[in-house]
Amino acid sequence: MDPGNVCLTRTCDSGNCGTLPVANGTLLAAQTAGDCKKNTCDGAGSIVAAIDNTDLPVDANQCTDNVCMAGAPSNPNSAAGGACSQAGGTKCDGAGACVECLSASTCPGVDTACQSRTCTVGACGIAFAPDGTICGGMGSFCMTGDCCIGGACP
């Protein structure tokens, strides 16, 4: 007789076939990864799912946390500013995406009177001042009275 249940073992007592339950807490070989649970035997022949908050739901997104809370899996967004290296980004935006920037000041380059760094939807860019903008006070970039033409001082 094959019991067909991993929480029962076959027995043979004086030529009579039967089953006995395996010990309570026996861990089953078949588990579902990332479900915050572990399948064990209950000592009475049944399979039970016990909470296992170490069986994390890994989603491969560097900008989410892998969390088990009382046996419930979740992947909440990581805090803004955390390090990542996906999709060309370097910082988590707090909404689950790995982006190039969180603010214009974190973008490479230097702001001048004729152009300034931008950060739009997590991507760095440059905004050019309108033609005719006075470029005064920028030292070697522009002389007082120069005007921006196409984003550069003449």
CA distance, first residue to last residue: 93 Å
**Overall pLDDT, averaged?**
87
The overall strand count is: 10
Oligomer: single chain
Structural class: mainly beta
Describe the secondary-structure layout.
Elements: E1 8-13, E2 16-21, E3 37-41, E4 47-51, E5 67-69, E6 72-74, E7 91-92, E8 98-99, E9 115-120, E10 123-128
Antiparallel strand pairs: 1-2, 3-4, 5-6, 7-8, 9-10
How would you describe what is shown here?
- The protein is mainly beta.
- It is built from no helices and ten strands.
- The strands form five sheets. It has a two-stranded antiparallel ribbon.
- The chain is rod-shaped and about 105 Å long.
- The model has no long low-confidence stretch (mean pLDDT 87).
Task: Provide keyphrases for this structure.
single chain, mainly beta, 10 strands, 154 residues, 29% strand, two-stranded antiparallel sheet
In short:
This protein is an all-beta fold. 0% of the residues lie in helices and 29% in strands.
